[in-house]
Amino acid sequence: MPSDSPTHPPQPPQANPTPAPPQDLDALLALLRASFPSLSTQFQSGARYLLDHPQDVPVLSMRKIAASAGVQPATLVRLSQHLGFEGWQGLRELFVDALRGGSQPYARRARKVVRESSASRMLGEMLDAQHHNLDLIAANNDKTLQQAAELLSQAQNVHVAGFRSCFPIAFTFHYVYRLFRSSVQLIRADAGTLEMELRGLAPKDAVVVASFAPYSQESIRVAAAARECGCKVIALTDSTVAPIALAADCTLLFSVESPSFFPSITAGVAMVEALVEQLLARKGKGAIRALEQAEGELHRAGAYVPAGRG
């Protein structure tokens, strides 16, 4: 006798829903600690490195982090997915946001500095942060510094750009490099002239762009224009996935970590000083002759107070 009840085809078993990823670094680190005992051996190796070296994640590539953790890069991708992210980049962004101070505006961070002010403590924290930032330069740029020097040495002209807080980094590089190379131009964008200056880019040139989060629109425009013109692009920035880094032939990384309300440019300035040193060594005697000529002209023009005068 037929049944009045409708028949339904058997349903496939329901897959476990993907967990929602943590929304900030503290939540992620808490999840890693809580779930650590139940993770596979490979996942534990990756998680241990993330817990022990959070400062490395924003500035090192996934490949370098995987090598330091003793796992394959694919393990970090799978670990990220296991924690609810689409991939490694989603997990990494939490570390990057924490390094930048999250989305907190400068004024909010300034209130914290004022509230917790202590002269001796503040000085110690600042010096510790700068030592850490400088140490990361060597750790992150051993090969890329040489690559950047090679690209710049081979360029017909070098254009340098850095806006707002990054202007001192760009200006330092331009000023010191120009002491022994005349074909170095600083892109200033004064009085709305950025587009006019970008017309000077040519395929055999190289463009150095400095920017850290929050990234300026001008720096992104310079990098994009340089790429369109066929220039070599060297990015000085705080992340391998910074907008200017995505368009770069070579990326030099520096940390802007600071206990103060504003990101620090100390490591960025140190980076360009190290880069100019590499460029001087590559040019050799020619650079020495050009430097002697520039120094002589500056003294003859009265740029400096003669020695012995107070």
Automatic annotation (TrEMBL):
<dbReference type="InterPro" id="IPR001347">
    <property type="entry name" value="SIS_dom"/>
</dbReference>
<dbReference type="GO" id="GO:0003677">
    <property type="term" value="F:DNA binding"/>
</dbReference>
<dbReference type="GO" id="GO:0006096">
    <property type="term" value="P:glycolytic process"/>
</dbReference>
<keyword id="KW-0804">Transcription</keyword>
<dbReference type="InterPro" id="IPR035472">
    <property type="entry name" value="RpiR-like_SIS"/>
</dbReference>
<protein>
    <submittedName>
        <fullName>GlvR family transcriptional regulator</fullName>
    </submittedName>
</protein>
<dbReference type="Pfam" id="PF01380">
    <property type="entry name" value="SIS"/>
</dbReference>
<feature type="region of interest" description="Disordered">
    <location>
        <begin position="1"/>
        <end position="23"/>
    </location>
</feature>
<dbReference type="GO" id="GO:0003700">
    <property type="term" value="F:DNA-binding transcription factor activity"/>
</dbReference>
<keyword id="KW-0238">DNA-binding</keyword>
<dbReference type="InterPro" id="IPR047640">
    <property type="entry name" value="RpiR-like"/>
</dbReference>
<dbReference type="Pfam" id="PF01418">
    <property type="entry name" value="HTH_6"/>
</dbReference>
<feature type="domain" description="HTH rpiR-type">
    <location>
        <begin position="26"/>
        <end position="102"/>
    </location>
</feature>
<keyword id="KW-0324">Glycolysis</keyword>
<dbReference type="InterPro" id="IPR000281">
    <property type="entry name" value="HTH_RpiR"/>
</dbReference>
<keyword id="KW-0805">Transcription regulation</keyword>
<feature type="domain" description="SIS">
    <location>
        <begin position="148"/>
        <end position="285"/>
    </location>
</feature>
<dbReference type="InterPro" id="IPR036388">
    <property type="entry name" value="WH-like_DNA-bd_sf"/>
</dbReference>
<dbReference type="InterPro" id="IPR009057">
    <property type="entry name" value="Homeodomain-like_sf"/>
</dbReference>
<dbReference type="GO" id="GO:0097367">
    <property type="term" value="F:carbohydrate derivative binding"/>
</dbReference>
<dbReference type="InterPro" id="IPR046348">
    <property type="entry name" value="SIS_dom_sf"/>
</dbReference>
<feature type="compositionally biased region" description="Pro residues">
    <location>
        <begin position="7"/>
        <end position="22"/>
    </location>
</feature>
